[in-house]
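Notebook B, p. 112. Complex prediction, attempt 2.
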Amino acid sequence: MDAPVDTVPMPLPAIGADAADAIAAAAVPQAKVATPTQSVPLAFTGTGSEYFRIWVVNAVLTIATLGIYSAWAKVRKASYFARNTRLLGDGFEFTANPWAILRGRVLALGLLGFYTFAYDFSLTLGLVATAVLLAAAPLLFASATRFRLRNTRWRALRFDFTASKAAAYRSALVVIAVWISSTVIGAFGGLDSAVFAGFAAVLLMPWMHHRMKAFQHRHAWFAGHASSFRSALGSFYATYAIAVVILLVAAAVAGFGAAGVSLALRSLPLARGADPKIIGFLIGAIVGALGYLASWPYFASRIQRIVWTRTALGPFQFETTIAFRTLLPIALRNFALLLVTAGLYWPFASIAWARYRIGCMSVVSVESPEAAVATLDPGPARQAAGEGAADMFGIDIGW
Amino acid sequence: MLANPASFSGRWFDGRSAAPQPVRVSIGRHELVIDAGAERPLQAHRVAALRIAEPLEHAPRLIDLPDGGMLETEEGPALVAALRGAGHREARAVHWQGAWPASLVALVLLVAGAAWIYLVGLPRVADWAASKIPVEWEQRLGDQSLKVLDGSGLFLKTALLPEERVALEARLAAFEKAAGLVPTRRLEFRTVASGDGTNAFSLPGGTIVLLDDLVDFAGKDTEMLFAVMAHEAGHQARRHMTRSLLRGLGGAALAGLLWGDYSSVASHTAILFGQLSYSRDDEREADDFAIAALRRAGVSPAALARFFNKVRTTKGGRTGPPTWASTHPDSGERAQRAIAAAEADDAAREAASAPSR
């Protein structure tokens, strides 16, 4: 479907992107002299204390209006992060119409409600709801991406996303087929086939994720320049595999640790009220959460690196210094402070996370980004239905 | 001579090129004028017709021009004052989020509002909605759920003989009548595929499922079966399954609004713990309902305690979650409540019989 961009042989998953980058860098020192590349870092200037106030006002108004204000809150939040993301000193601008987002959210809520309750009435209605959802999903996903990009500008130059309906369906068709077949096997086959279908779906998850990212990163535009994305399926699989290993190791450590502590405490004459079971459970829960916390920053940092080092936007390419060992302490600190503050640290955590993940990105080009000149066609902003719906169904469109 | 309009340095982007143009911006009574140097004509715009971004502490002000261009000027009190003088009004939310006192008031309102909604508002709305949902809808939901459970392989057909079942059904029906309970619409028997199934459960719309292990364990202690039945009847009478479904939806919406913007993990965790606390309240309510029903039928609430003690001895050896992370309150605590009720009955009976002696 998409023009193949795999002109560069894919590195073995075991080598990984860092090694491949190092090899590529070592191989072209002369080329570097011939075509000097400019590297411009992105910076993030948002602060927790400012965003905390935006967040708290957003949250109060959202609750007071029974969720209606959430569309306006979303624009304020997205605008805050966009304007504080700086390239060559200038921030990005996010100018979506909140009414369009509200319409999208109402539609998404309707779809979700229909899907949730349809099966309670009859199997036929449930199947109809599933069919509607599956038919709408690729369009909603494409439309969410388009809405976000069309409403983003940098130096008055607009981003865009131009995947056709056909391209959206083509890209999602196999994913949907896999999803339907695993659901159908799960529903009509026995327990064994359901387990098998679930296992197959899990095995295909990195492939689906990669396909989704490729779809997004191959149809974006900025100021007349089209984006491209070099496939990295092997790296996606390696990342998923290592993330799962980290999770399993942490879970095992958590299990043994909790059991050990529980046993040790049981043999001691404990003061009244301190139930060793509870202490053991607490320790297990904390270590398990730490395992998840270790796995997630690994996953996030690897995927960000894989995706962005293989993305080009016209003459621009991207570099990132993102590293697991830097992201991990940020994630742990955020988690600890979120627990201590019963969730009120949330805006500070969002800022800390964004500051690192955005600050470690650079834009690389042969010509100066200043020289990017383009003619624009800022057509009317499309409906936000896609954006709202993708939010509801938990499809996270990463930065 | 007229007072000079406020003047600022800025950068102008024409919307076709990424190259910035240094400009002088003057903001007068109603107009904003851009001076891009001697070679270019002055641009004048009515301030009311411009889309002016909200002020931020660490980012310049962005002003969208009608021709697709954009103006960027440094933020500051002078700019705010000049724009106000030209008739530009910031949204009220901007004033609140700009000042710490207003934000702290918002914080207090947020915590109080979220707590009130969670503790009072949501249960009330869910109970009201549950009372409006037609019974047929609940019955269909319950029948569908049972079908799903039967298809899951977790539950198998009962090993009880048909005559045993009929006898049991008759005794339970007699108890329901004596206790003044609504007759159970659909009583089902199943056995668990693996593990201990000394239990019973309720599905929406009046379906109660008794598991073989419970019937076996009760043996001749029919009163224990009555107690469990009365507990499940409590879930049915109070429509706990439908209510918890509705509360779950409301809780998901609330958590999503608060923390759903960046990660769904935090909001899912919040929903889970919220569900658990609602669920524990429901169990206590069903226990109270059961104790009252047993009393009406002349059965000692101690029968309920005997069941909880059994649950405790079966599960006590294993490491279970503490109360706040569990769907059910601590079995020991529940047994004690039933025993306390039984002891109160005994005391009352003694007190009543004392004067006649």
